[in-house]
Amino acid sequence: MVVAVQTASPFDSVTQYFFEKLDFEPTKEQEAILATDHRFILVTGGEQAGKSMVASKFLLSRLPDAPQKALFWLVGPDYANTEREFTYLKEDFEALGILQDATKRNDPGQLTLDDGTRIVTKSAKDPRSLAREAPHGILACEAAQLDLPTYERMRGRTGPRRGWLMMSGTLEAGIGWYPQLATAWTNGMNSRVSYSLPTWSNHFLYPGGRNDPEILAMERESSDDYFMERIAGRPVPPAGLVFGEFRVDIHVRDIKWVPKEPVHVWVDPGYAGAHAVVAVQVINGQVQVFDELYEQGLTTSDMISKARRKPWWKDVQFGVIDVAGMQHQAMAAPAEVWLDEAGLYMSSQKVPINQGSERLKALLKPDSITGEPQIVFAPHLKGILSEFGVEPNPFNNQTQAYRWKLDRDGNIVGDTPEDRYNHSVKAVIYGLVDRFGYVSMRDRGERIRVRHW
Predict the structure, then answer these.
(1) Coil, strand or helix: which one is 377?
(2) Are strands 40-45 and 192-197 parallel, antiparallel or unpaired?
(3) What does the alpha-carbon distance between residue 134 and residue 123 come to, in Å, rounded to a whole number?
(4) Do 427 and 294 form a contact (C-beta atoms < 8 A)?
(5) How far apart are CA 347 and CA 203, in angstroms?
(6) Which domains does the chain have, with CATH numbers?
(7) Given the DSSP bridges, would you call strands 71-76 and 137-140 parallel, antiparallel or unpaired?
(8) How far is the C-alpha of 123 from the C-alpha of 334, rounded, in Å?
(9) How far is CA 30 from CA 170, 229, 241, 329, 345, in A?
(10) Are 280 and 263 in contact (CB under 8 A)?
(11) Rounded to whole angstroms, how far apart are CA atoms 33 and 163?
(12) Kind and range of the H or E element at 375?
C-alpha cells in the first residue's frame, strides 16, 4: 500500500487560496522567494526566468498582512519597465474578483481593489514621485537598471510604515550596487536577503531544468561570466578593482551637510578627464563625504564659482589639493586661484600611490566591535561611486572604475593601478593623508613599493 505524503504549505491560508484559484504552483526556487519573511528582498534573475511574474505573486502574497486601503508602488527605471508586473497583477486581481478599478495604461497606472488598496506605478525618472506618501510595500522592477540614489529613496520610503521592498533584475557586467548587495545579502543579514532565480527555474520554457538541452547548449556557447550572470542569475565578482573593500551596504549612507560643523574641501584638478572637488565633514570621528563637484571642461575658477553657490560653503575652513595644483602651467596655479578667488588656503604634499590607497583602505575597514567604517559616502556622489565601481561614469554612462592593470586572463599586472577613473578618489586620498597621515606599515609586517601620481 502506497501512502501519499502531503507537505505543509509555507503560505498562509489566504495566500494559498489565491495561488490555488490562479492555478499557480511555485517551483522550489520561487517558493523560497515568496515564503520569506524578510523586509528587503533582492532577486537576481536569469533571462526569461519569470522575474516579473514572481514579483507580482510576491505582492499578492503580502496582501493578507496589509491593512485596508493599503498603498503599494511599482517602481521602474521608467514606466515601460513596470508594464509586465502591472499587467500580471491586473489579470490576477480580475481572476480573484477583487479588482474594483484599473487604468488602461501604466504610464502612470493605478489598480484599485475592493477594500480601497491601491497599486501605483512610479518612474525613477521623476524622483519627486518617490517622495510622496509612504507605501506599505514596493516592487522595484528591473531594479539592476535603477541607480543607487533611487534605491536609497525607496528604502527610505518604506520606513514610516515599516514596509517591504522587493527588487528583481538581471545582472550585467558584474559591477554596480545591485550585484554588490546581492552578494552581501546572500546568507541573509538583519532583515535583508537575496535569491537567484536561474533561467532554468522557468519549467514552462525549460522543462528539463538545469539539464535542459537548451540550457546546456547556452552553457557550451557562452563565456563562463555571461552564463553565470545572464543565465544562472549569480553575480560574478569584478576583476581588478583597486578598492574591492568598498561595499554599498556598509559605506553608502544618507548623510547630509551638518551646518556649523567645519567643512573640508579636497580637490583633484583636471580638465579633459574630470575635475573633482569633494566636500567632507568629520562627525563623531567618522569621515563623511557628503557632496561632490565632478565636471569635465571646467577651469578652477568655474569650479570655485560652483562651490561658492553651495549652502555648505559658509562652513568651509580647510582645503587640500593635488601637489600638481601648486604648479604654474602658463597660467596661475590652481592653489593660487583658490586663495585669490575663494580666500581658501590649500595645503598639498606628494602622495605615493600605494601608501595613499592604504590610508583609504584602512578607513574603509569596519570597526571590529561596532561594525562602523571610519569613512562613508552619500548616495548621490556619481563621480566617486563610479570610480569605486558602484555606478556608471556620469559623463558617458559606461562602466569605468579605478582598476589595476590586467592581462588577458584577468590577472593583475604590475604594482600600480591604471592612473585613470580615479579623480575623486585621489581628492579623498589627498585629504585623508593631510589630516591623518599614512598608515604604519610596521604593524602590518608589509613592505609597500612607492610610486607617485
Answers:
(1) strand
(2) parallel
(3) 16
(4) no
(5) 63
(6) 13-231 (3.40.50.300), 249-436 (3.30.420.280)
(7) parallel
(8) 41
(9) 16, 18, 33, 62, 59
(10) yes
(11) 17
(12) strand 375-377
What's the distance, Cα to Cα, between the start and end of the chain in Å? 79
Tell me the sheet residues that pair with 293: 277
Q: What is the pLDDT of residue 369?
A: 87
CA distances from 151 to 156, 158, 189, 359 (A): 9, 11, 18, 29
Which among 200-204, 413-417, 423-427 has the top mean pLDDT? 423-427
Q: Residues with Cβ < 8 Å from 243, sequence gap 6 or more?
A: 357, 360, 361, 364, 388, 389, 402, 425
pTM comes to 0.83
83: cell is: 508594464
Nearest to 388 by CA among 148, 76, 155, 43: 148
Torsion sign across C-alpha atoms 228, 229, 230, 234? positive
Rounded distance between C-alpha atoms, residue 139 and residue 124, angstroms: 13
What nine digits make up the cell of 341? 578667488
CA–CA separation, 243 and 403 (whole Å)? 8
For residue 220, the one-letter residue type is R
Q: Which residues pair with 277 in a beta bridge?
A: 267, 293
pLDDT digits (tens, 9 = 90+) for 36-76: 999 999 999 999 999 999 999 999 999 999 999 999 999 99
8 Å CB contact between 239 and 402 = no
Which H/E stretch holds residue 318? strand 316-321
